[in-house]
Amino acid sequence: MKKTKSLLLSTPYLVWMVVFTLIPLGVVAYYALTDPATGAFSLGNVKSLGMYLPVLWKSIGYSLVSAFICLLLGYPVAYYIAHRSPTAQKFLYMLVMLPMCMSFLLRTLAWVGLLQDTGIINTLLSKLGLPRLTLIRTPGAVVLGMVYNYLPYMILPLYGVIVKIDPRLIEAAEDLGCTPVQVFHKVVFPLSLPGIISGCVLVFTMSMTSYVTPKLLGGSKFRMMATMVVQEINVNFDWGAASAISYILLAVILLVQVVVVLCTSGYMKRMGGGK
Description:
The chain has a single domain, classed as MetI-like (MetI-like fold, Orthogonal Bundle), CATH 1.10.3720.10. It is mostly helical and 275 residues long. Helices cover 76% and strands 0% of the residues.
């Protein structure tokens, strides 16, 4: 009876998974592994992926840098919010959530207005008698845009974990003579690892699949894996190549997630063994 009830409760989720996950993945796999002219099985699209390896490595590098910067910026913010009064927490939480109510396109366009050659920053530099800077259509502009857009997705998981840390654990560590650095290393950081993992994986995944930010802030010549997918579809009309790139992108994201989980598990075991 319990198994039947559990199966009935899980039916909507299973239907959702099949319709919106498995079927789309199957369609993409079909285009990736077939010849567009004949429809026959072919590995031609997969074999041609070698030319995209430089773009893949560049995308991974920019995504890792974005996730790392978001962690450096987001952890102190989340820690600060978690240690405020309940009223202040609600207000600060709302401020973090506020940018998420706007689309990525609008937020990125705001940075275009700030960074472009005739934008606000260069206009101010000119009025101060300083030379204009090339701020847009650079890798730094792309990383800046991704950090700005995805920082809330780092802060929120961290805040949700840090706010649940029992203050008595910190007080006990302090009573045992631990310095603030030791308290953070031995208590706060290990307990906040789930939030760190969630935030880093979210930011990395969204950066790897980002299209609007590289396109607007990096310019037409800036290449990341997501922009290559759109280019193959809209410019080259090659659905097979676009599908193959999409599967490579999916495989890299899953691989990074597995590596992060394994490294975190190893760290937690070492921490547990040291007690």
